[in-house]
Write a structure and sequence with these properties.
The chain has about 160 residues and is of the alpha+beta class. It is built from 4 helices and 8 strands, in the order ββααβββαβαββ. The longest helix is centred in the first third of the chain and has 19 residues, at about 15-35.
């Protein structure tokens, strides 16, 4: 589906080899910026097993994000229409394209596609300041809690957005 400048296509398993290197670059960029490590991300982010497990989880809805016919990222959602809630499991954009508004377009697409969802939740590392800016300032989430201890490299911010 075309939405603003991007095309959102339900993810298929054939997308994994294309999206995995983009995901790896995106998470490695965060690791370099915020964790002072050359690379890093959730288990399987670099070999396709993360996408295999979560993008194709029975409760997940996942989209490949394309710009001018080229994949640039993905979004993984968990939609619970029975209680009008959703969970943003993962969103990533190629790091060389961050700052061009594509993440914000992706989030507007999500809200457009799921207008019945009134409460969204997500989480992100406490140290990932760029993510905080994106979620809070661009998408309208609020930080509602911190889990994982006092170490800023281990803690996770819990985020929530309520749509009225």
């Amino acid at each position: 589906m075309e939405f603003e400048q991007l095309c959102f296509t339900p993810m298929v398993k054939d997308d994994i080899p294309t999206l995995t290197p983009i995901m790896k670059r995106s998470f490695d960029n965060d690791a370099q910026l915020f964790f002072q490590k050359p690379e890093g991300g959730p288990p399987g982010y670099d070999d396709g097993s993360f996408l295999e497990q979560w993008a194709f989880h029975p409760e997940a809805t996942s989209y490949r994000i394309d710009l001018n016919g080229t994949p640039i990222g993905a979004v993984i959602l968990f939609i619970h229409e029975e209680n009008a809630s959703g969970y943003l499991g993962n969103i990533f954009i190629a790091p060389d394209l961050i700052g061009n508004g594509y993440g914000s377009i992706a989030w507007r697409f999500v809200e457009h596609m799921y207008p019945k969802i009134k409460t969204w939740s997500a989480e992100t590392p406490a140290v990932s300041y760029r993510n905080h800016y994106f979620y809070v300032n661009k998408c309208g989430f609020h930080i509602v809690g911190v889990e994982g201890g006092k170490d800023r490299f281990e803690a996770q911010f819990k985020l929530c957005k309520t749509i009225h």
